[in-house]
Structure prediction request, 680 residues.
Amino acid sequence: MSWLDTFRIAFDNLRQAKLRFTLTCLGVMIAIATLFAMVSFGAGLRAETMGSLQLQDLLRSFRVLGPEQSQYITRLREEKPEKPASRKRLPLNDNLVERVSRLQYVETVQPEIRLPVELQNGKSRYLGWVRGAIPELKRNPPYSKITAGRFLNAGKAKEIVLSRGVAEILGFKDAEKAVGQTIELRTDQLRPVSGQDDLPIETVTGKFRIVGVLPRLAASRGGTFYGGSVIPLDLARELWRKNPASAASLTALRGGLESREREYPLIDVRVSDSSQLEEVRKTVESWGASTFSLVDEMDKVKQAFLILETIFSVLGTIALVVASLGIANVLIMSVLERMQMIGTMKAIGGTDGDIRRIFLFEAGLIGVVGGLAGLAAGWLLTRVAHRIIAHFFLKNGITEIPDLFAYPAWLILGVIGFALVFSMIAGLLPANRAARIDPVKALKTA
Amino acid sequence: MAVSLSHGLGSVALRVDDLSKEYRMGTRTVIALDHVSLDVGTGTFLGVVGRSGSGKSTLLNLLAGLDRPSAGAIWFGDQNLAALRSDGLARHRRHTVGIVFQSFYLIPTMTALQNVAVALAFAGVTSGPRRERAVELLGLVGLGDRADHRPAELSGGEQQRVAIARAMANNPQFLLADEPTGNLDSRTAEEIFVLLKRLHQEGRTIICITHEKDLIGQYADRLVTLKDGRLAAE
Prediction:
């Protein structure tokens, strides 16, 4: 008997028992929908995380660490700390910035400057930090996403780009309207003292023009890692070097170091392509610097996602195993009910193989129909979940919403294949039982 | 002692050689056929009569290849059924013999046409020719206008005609009928025998098992009697 005829007979048989067929398919559908939704979530989470790392350029950047950060990373990794004397420490100063900038493939080199400030717009105040930024940073997220205004220009102009959150604290509800406005920036500076009663600190105030406002971004889209309000790097550097919070300022106060030799806590380096990251990084490390890149953690991240996806898959598979038992049960009942039909088919020339195939096709059909329905239901389920997540994001003012569900082709084909394979396995026992039926006994079954 | 019968009508198409069939019923062994030997010539209409439990249906099941003998041989030409495996027996049922049962055994979910066509499907006949042949066969048994009816919508006589059409689907040389009129009234039974006689006259070898000795006597050109699993007389 041809495959097409076998399929037709199997399909007709299932059509005769619509309710049973529907209920069995429903079991498979629920299992597949669960499996699909869970694996889709795992895959989506992985894609979103990896994508966000790429979006934030974290895969083509590394940081040259100062001694404090270096020790912190060592502790985080639970590595044995190097003996202080065993390695000559490379100072993170302007000389190093210039040296790294000259390396091939290096796109931007930005010393990390976080300046404690007070920003004021009328009665609204914000107490926190601003960073110093080079103009080239406008190419990189999240600054590349500015929709209101522009990024900073080169030089020491008193310009500021505000994060959306800071703009709101300062009373600018509408980002567009904030652009062009002027705010006050206050920060502390060390000064030489003459008398013992004088404090060696004075507060300086400057008027800064808001030139741009960042959109509100989810953490995964660069909202936190590199986000925040920024002023021109050269200006920030000047203020920071005299700020009591910087170690450089204390050294300067003691009058020991030239300006170029004053150190930064860390330097952020971006290369033009992630494939060149390691080469540049190794060169910098060969000079005696400690570096850190998220690329180091990628294997662990990937491993974590693999574990997550495996757990989801196992849970979904358990549901599918239960559904498969349902298929086996229904088909065994079906064999018992259709003994006479099986006997008749054998009497008119059907082989054991023909009968086996008819029942396997029935099982396969249940699997495919249930699988397709499960795929649709799973997709619907994940879309509803996405809508709910999006609702919460929007409620918190985040307009760029990540999709935590992914539908790669391997997942779609995989779950259908899975449903088919599981249902066929479930159909093996009843199909073999049907094939082995003695036709004489089967025909006597009335 | 077993009685062996042979008949001289034409060449031998079927030879049953010292055939026995035993069944186990719990701890008891039931002998359904006891050393039966029989030659059937090509183109014979053989009637096998006997009381209930005489072994008639067992003999037919063995000739059809639905069951296996405990001993002996069944020769269809040079092919011994006793030596065939499951697939070989299926081929035998598909091409060499057509079987008609007392209870018709039509597939209730299929139409008359589909019931005939399914036998052709098992033989690998493709859709187009299958339909043509099924329509032709239903026309031959007088059911050309009932092709799209399901068994439940047909009378007993009509169902048996469909069953005969199905048995003839792959144009077998032998038609084996097991009490084909057992569930029919006398008038319809006669119609079925007329149909069987027609098929016989077209050159087929018919073996019909029945307890209606008088009726079969009018159509068969040879009658054998089974008694307690043995061939009693001709």
Summary: The first helix of chain A runs from residue 3 to 16.
